[in-house]
Amino acid sequence: MTAGAVLTAIFHLKPFESMPLLAVLRSAGTTSMIAGDIGLKGPRIDALHKLLNGKHLQDHRTTVLQRPVLKVQVPSEKDPIYGMFFGTAAIYQASLFCNQKIHARGMRGELAAGMALIRFLIAVGLRDHNVVSGVTITARLNQTR
After folding, report:
1. Looking at the whole model, is its pTM more than 0.90?
2. So where are the chain's domains?
3. How many C-alpha atoms does 92 have within 13 Å on its Cβ side?
4. How many angstroms separate the Cα of 45 from the Cα of each of 5, 62, 88?
5. Segment 3-62, tens digit of pLDDT
6. What is the C-alpha to C-alpha distance for residues 84 and 87, in angstroms, rounded to an integer?
7. Residue 70 forms beta bridges with which residues?
8. Is the CB of residue 25 less than 8 Å from the CB of residue 47?
């Protein structure tokens, strides 16, 4: 499950009285900015073993980090989504494009992200609204869960 999906479930369903600590592992075959920022270091299998055995607590490189969580309400969606990076609507649109057009062809990882970035830059330069479209955004600060 992605970090965004977990954050969305926690903030939308509110199953905990207080926010639990979360451990983020790098995912297989995709680029994750959240895992790159706060994820457990090393190959994901090794990181999972360290986490399950409590060895991450003994690792001097492991610290507890606190990051703000962003709430995004997409007009076409009933429920909001939550995440940790704000790229206006570009990250959302790029993720949809990458999943539908690039991952569907079997391409994964940083190569897939690079191909999506190149296609998006071309679309912006050509004003190709089939790939990149305008989105109305409203920003509010210091909202609670």
Report:
1. no
2. 1-68, 87-145
3. 20
4. 21, 16, 33
5. 778 888 998 889 999 988 888 887 765 556 777 777 777 777 888 887 888 765 666 566
6. 10
7. 83
8. yes
Task: Compute the distance between CA of residue 128 and CA of residue 118 in angstroms, rounded to an integer.
Answer: 13
Tell me the DSSP string of 34-83.
HHHHHSPSS-HHHHHHHHHTTGGGT-TT--------EEE--TT-SS-EEE
At position 108, the amino acid (one-letter code) is R
**Can you tell me whether residue 109 is helix, strand or coil?**
helix
105 φ/ψ angles, rounded to the nearest 5 degrees: -95, 5
Residues in the chain: 145
Residue given tokens 């959240």 in the structure block: 34
CB 27 within 8 A of CB 43: no
Taking residue 101's Cβ as centre, other Cβ atoms within 10 Å add up to 15
Round to whole Å and give the CA distance between 85 and 2: 14
Of 2, 12, 3, nearest in space to 65 by CA: 3
What confidence tens digit (pLDDT) does each residue in 69-125 have?
888 777 777 888 888 776 656 666 777 777 888 888 888 877 887 888 888 788 878
Residue at 122: amino acid letter? I
